[in-house]
Amino acid sequence: MCETYAKDGTPHPTNKRYSCDRIMERVMDEENPEFAIEQEYTLLDYDGHPFGWPKSGYPGQQGPYYCAVGATNVFGRQISEAHYKACLYAGLCVSGSNAEVMPAQWEYQVGPCPGTAMGDELWISRYILHRVAEDFGVIVTLDPKPMPGDWNGAGGHCNFSTSRMKAENGMKV
Asked: What residue stretches are annotated with the GS catalytic domain (predicted)?
């Protein structure tokens, strides 16, 4: 899914996954490199306004929304949970989800995954996210700053570890 090849069957010069995979194969047994990504996203109505926000204004200031519960604090939990379940059903290595700082903003965690599997699983999980949101009549954006002003941005945070990092005195490594 994430690789491209030339007509002769060799990796295309833009195929960075191929070279990354060769490196991961060389270090897998000794280092066991694992990656995880925390993917943030924002849910939008068809008009581009954040899902659940008042149409003629803004919700209350940020603060009570992060990892929150309650209908006045979270918008789109059904979508987030449906996405999480669909990823699990598809066999993806997802390890959590939570409401984020800005209302209608969510995060899910993919991984930890060995080597290049992280990128593959992230792409598939994003496809599933867009597909699930479609069922709810909502748009997903990965835009790092979907709302101007003093509203939280969204990103993708990477985590990385090796066998030596997870062993005793791993913090020194």
From this structure: 16-173
Tell if the pTM clears 0.85, that is, is over it. yes
Tell me the DSSP string of 136-160.
Answer: TT-EEE--S--SSSS-----EEEEE
- Residue (of 43, 41, 59) closest to 51 by Cα position: 43
Structural contact between residues 17 and 11, judged by C-beta atoms closer than 8 angstroms:
no
- Distance from CA of residue 58 to its chain's centroid? 26
Q: Are 124 and 132 in contact (CB under 8 A)?
A: no
State the DSSP code for 61: P
Please report, as a single letter, which amino acid is at residue 108.
Y
Banded pLDDT at 173 (limits 50, 70, 90): confident
